[in-house]
Amino acid sequence: MTSLMSGLTLATTRVEAQAIKTDAEGIEAGEVAIPAADGPMPAYRAVPKGEGPFPVVLVVEEIFGVHDYIKDICRRLAKAGYCAVAPELYARQGDLSKMTDVKQIIAEVISKTPDAQWIGDLDATVAWATSAAKGDGKRLAVMGWCRGGRAAWLYDAHRTDLKAAVAWYGPLGGERTGIQPRTAGDVAGEIHAPLLALYGGADTGIPVASVEAARDAAKAAGKEVELVIYPEAPHGFHADYRPSYRKEAAEDGWSRALAFLKAHGV
C-alpha cells in the first residue's frame, strides 16, 4: 500500500448509517507519509490548529487497515487536544483496501507482519510526530482496538517513555511464532506506563479470565492496569460502523480513555 484506503473496510459487515462522522473544524486532518525504515509509510494525522506542541496519541488500527473509522477516531482525538497519528502498519504485507475476506487478511497479512516491524514503525511515527507534526514527545500515549489493543500492551512493554496506554479488547493470548514470539499476556508484567483495559464480557474470542490474569500479572509486578468489563458488550463494541457497536459501552469507554490519558500526564 502506498496510500490509505478510502471509505470503510470491505472485509466485514457494515452499518454505515450509524457510523460517527467527525468534521475537521478547528483541526488539521489528512493523509501523510511517515519516513520509515525502508521508505515512506502512509498514515493519517489529525491535530488541533495552532502552534502546539500537542500531546501525541498513537492510534493503532484493527486488522482492517486505516479506513474511515480509524481516521474518524484521529479527528475525535484532535478535537480533544491531541496530535493523533494512525500509521498503516500493514502497508508492506498487503493492500487491505482490496481484501474482503477476514481469513485472508489474517493468513496473508496479520500473521506475516513481524512484531519488531510494527514496533519500529510506531517508533518512527513518534519521531515524525514530534519533529514534523506539532507533537510533544514528552506526553506520549498509545491507543489501539482489537489487534491494535494487543499492540497497546506490547508497545507499552517496549517503550519506556510512554505515559499511558489504552487497549480496547485486544487479545491476550494467541499463537506464538518466530516473528510474533510473545503474546500480550506474556508481557503484562513488563509494561512501563499505566494501562486502561476496556473489554466486553460477551466477547466470545477473549475470555474475561485471560484479561483478569493479565491484570493480576501486571499488578504482581508493581504495574498499573485499570480493567473495565462491559458485561453485555461483544467484541468490537466501539466499532460504530459495525453491528457489534454498543453505544453506551462505547461512549463510557471513550470518556474513561480521555480521562485516563489526562490523569497520567497526556
UniProtKB/TrEMBL annotation:
Transmembrane segments: none annotated. Keywords: Hydrolase. InterPro entries: AB_hydrolase_fold (IPR029058), Dienelactn_hydro (IPR002925), Dienelactone_hydrolase-like (IPR051049). Pfam families: DLH. The keyword Magnesium does not apply. It is an enzyme of class 3 (hydrolase). GO terms for molecular function: hydrolase activity. Residues 41-264 form the Dienelactone hydrolase domain. Its EC number is 3.1.-.-. The keyword Hydrolase applies. PANTHER family: ALPHA_BETA-HYDROLASES SUPERFAMILY PROTEIN, CARBOXYMETHYLENEBUTENOLIDASE-RELATED. This is Dienelactone hydrolase family protein. The lineage of its organism: Bacteria, Pseudomonadati, Pseudomonadota, Alphaproteobacteria, Hyphomicrobiales.
